[in-house]
Amino acid sequence: MTNSTEKKVFEIANPSDAYTIVGEYKVAVLAVTFLSEAYGVTDKEGKTTGMFAFGGLDEWMKANEITDIGQYVNSNRQAFIEAFDSVLIGGFADRVEIEAALALIPKEKHEEFLVKRHDRKRSSINDIGKKAKIYAERLRKAELKEQQK
């Protein structure tokens, strides 16, 4: 996987329901790691990065020139919010269908559509999508707090 700053779609490698995330490579890897160190990201070519439950995160960070994870998140907070908000249940093909459906639905109905779809498709008690939304909201609150200083 390249160390790209271009936003890409990745599947979240996990033992539960399929999910995708959109983000720059480093942001996507770390966002998924925050969801669980046992998860990774898989690109469209099938290469998986992450899954640091048994180690390797420090080496990955060094190879990707991240010296302070907190500082990296804070300086890329909006990118992390967008990545967490982008998490959708389903794989690559499902995401294409979802985006096509959203193009036909009025914007004010998008969230309702996504929530109902998520509830219909989720089969695991491990709700990765909900956890991603919680993290996005926490980062939004941190951003707001920072702006109020």
Explain the overall architecture.
The chain has helices at 25-35, 57-63, 69-75, 77-86, 92-104, 110-121, 128-147; strands spanning 8-13, 19-23, 40-42, 48-50, 88-89. The chain starts with 7 loop residues before the first strand and ends with a helix. The model has no long low-confidence stretch (mean pLDDT 94). It is an alpha+beta fold. The chain has a 5-stranded antiparallel sheet with strand order 4-3-1-2-5, sandwiched between helices.
Features:
globular; alpha+beta; 5-stranded antiparallel beta sheet; 5 strands; 149 residues
Topology of this structure?
Layout: E1 8-13, E2 19-23, H1 25-35, E3 40-42, E4 48-50, H2 57-63, H3 69-75, H4 77-86, E5 88-89, H5 92-104, H6 110-121, H7 128-147
Antiparallel strand pairs: 1-2, 1-3, 2-5, 3-4
Q: What general outline do the C-alpha atoms trace?
A: globular
Discrete helix count: 7
Give the helix/strand class.
alpha+beta
Question: Major sheet: order of its strands?
Answer: 4-3-1-2-5
> What is the mean predicted local confidence, pLDDT?
94
